Amino acid sequence: MTYLKRLHLHRWQRLLALFLSMMIFVIAVPIYASNTPQQDLNQLNFYVDRSLSKAQAKDYKASQAAYEKFQQKWLKVEDRVKKVSPQAEQDIEKQISEVKVAFSTKPPNQAKLVAAIKNLNATNNKFINGGFKSNQPTKAIVNQDQRSLAYSIERLNRAEVALNKKDLATAVSQMKSFKTEWLDVKGIVATKSPDAYFAIENNIIRSYGFLTSKPVDITGARSAIASLKKDLQPFATEPLKYNTSDATLILLTEKLETLLVLVALLGFLKKSGNANKIYSLGLGASAGLAAAMIAAVVIEIFFSNAGGNIYRELLQGITGLAAAVMLFYTSFWLHMKSSIITGQEDIQDKINTIATNSGLFFGMLAFLAVFKEGAETTLSYINISWSMSSNDLLTGLGFGLLSLIAIAALILVVGLRLPTKLFFPLTSLLIFYLGFKFVGSGIHALQVADILPVSPANFLPVFNALSLYSTWETTLSQLVLIAIAIAVVMYTRFQNNRVTKEIPSEQQTVSENS
């Protein structure tokens, strides 16, 4: 009876690890986004106080640095302030502009600069202390991210004008600035339309690659920039509102690949009779999620200024490629071990051998898989939390979490009922597919971060579901992986044919000896 109970618990451990990991996420994001607009602005006003003290000491460089830090972080709370009081938002914006003007003269006029910063400080404190009347915001609010996106589209216009004048230096400069600014606003596009986001990211790399190639491909650059403007325009002009479905879809789109990795590994351990190692997956996934959220908060707080979001791309690229390496190793490992076999008992023996002492390896793989998407998912929720109610956010998170659990349970139930000979090749293929995608998205992220070169070509395939981007760096890397996979399959078939031929010879020898 005790043994049966232990078996029953093991059946649920595979879902418990995933559920606990996701619950950390559900609890942590609302806590991070739970401050009132007054509390948020009060925290940001620290930079205004610092700017004022440095201006009074005539340390204008430090004063301006503190002011710019406030201005960058103000963009994250502006919409929430406006929901409480549109007048407060307008007055703060006016005072921000006055400080910016005061800094524009070199060196600044100390009296005018100190007065402007004091006015900004007073306006902030007026809102913090409830000095503005609460009003309902207008129906069609275009938030600061959209205004920034509209300004970035203007950069595309300038790049086009420069190309028409054959002013390549200006065109490259405008596109480089656009590429940097895009990192600050990409979340509003990724949340609303993953397909549009993928197309825009691909065209950003293409346009920049065409402009920096030798020789410069002006026709290709113009085409990519025109596509960019067309795809970006709706997100910069239409009123932006987030709802429950948006919060749900973030989990389903950004966490589904991670879920598939975990489910494949859970199914493997269960099918191989090593359910006792499932806790390693739970620990790895939980640690990966915790590390991802910490990394996301660090990026949001310390690297949220223009250009600092490069660290987000570095995080995506490096962890994506590291996870891909481990996924390919696992995929080829499974395929080699489960293919060179002679019968059902041999299958089970070899799979049991694979799973022996593999808990640490699977834990590390779970950590990387969760960490890869966890930071980006956390940042996505932080970004939309400013523009939707807490109830909608929590409801969307709940629906998303329940949907992921249901998908995981369905895949496991169906997968575990498959014959052993079919289960492991399919698992190997699924893991290879995920690694294939991680390589494409990882290299692309490093290209966005200017770590890897960009060599675009119009005829190369573009496909979101496979992370196919139209650059030679991503395409050739993925082609090499396909070539390796074909070589592995051919090798295992050769080995199987050799074993098949040897068995009758051995049987004949035994018969003659008898």
UniProtKB/TrEMBL annotation:
Keyword line: Membrane, Transmembrane, Transmembrane helix
InterPro entries in UniProt: FTR1/Fip1/EfeU (IPR004923)
Compartments (UniProt record): Membrane
Keyword Transmembrane: yes
GO cellular component: high-affinity iron permease complex
Key word ATP-binding present: no
Transmembrane segments: 12-33, 249-269, 281-303, 315-334, 354-371, 393-416, 423-446, 466-491
Main location: membrane
MF term (GO), any: ferrous iron transmembrane transporter activity
Pfam family, one: FTR1
Membrane topology: Multi-pass membrane protein
Family: Belongs to the oxidase-dependent Fe transporter (OFeT) (TC 9.A.10.1) family.
Protein's UniProt name: Iron permease, FTR1 family
Record organism: Crinalium epipsammum PCC 9333
